[in-house]
Specification:
With about 160 residues, the chain is mainly alpha-helical. The chain contains 6 helices and 4 strands.
């Protein structure tokens, strides 16, 4: 109800506005899952259904949502897609994330879902993506190196 009220308010706003709403994860219900055998058939927990979250995108102007109509979009890949839909430029960071999303629709510690086509060296891109995420933990400046490589690729 509150989301609907918010969207109604946004209809009155004079500037172009995009609203996206989704839940990023479920609460830890491990005890409930165990009690009712939720993962009985999928003990490794690799079924993509266990990691899906529906989302809604609304705008107060005409928006081509086709790029969002894919079987899977990793949550970390949503931002560059929305920026592109809004016609906004991508920073080097989001350009890199967008490149990764063109080669992989889902990247998780339990599985990797490759996209049907990829215009990059997907294995090297995946390694750079892992380094980027690791940089948050170890701070070895992988991010700077990746952004430098992304800039060089964009200039070609």
């Amino acid at each position: 109800q509150k989301l609907k009220e918010f969207a109604e308010y946004l209809k009155t706003v004079d500037r172009p506005t995009i609203l996206i709403a989704f839940g990023d994860h479920l609460p830890n219900l491990q005890e409930v899952y165990d009690r009712y055998g939720f993962f009985k058939e999928d003990t490794e927990r690799t079924n993509l259904k266990n990691y899906q979250t529906p989302f809604v995108v609304w705008s107060n102007y005409k928006l081509d949502k086709k790029p969002l109509k894919q079987p899977y979009i990793a949550a970390s890949f949503v931002a560059p897609k929305l920026l592109k839909l809004a016609g906004l430029p991508l920073s080097d960071y989001y350009q890199f994330i967008d490149n990764v999303s063109n080669c992989y629709s889902a990247i998780h510690q339990k599985f990797v879902k490759e996209a049907p086509t990829c215009n990059f060296n997907n294995k090297a891109l995946l390694k750079d993506y892992e380094n980027l995420n690791r940089d948050v933990l170890d701070g070895n400046n992988h991010t700077y190196k990746i952004m430098q490589n992304t800039q060089i690729e964009m200039e070609k």
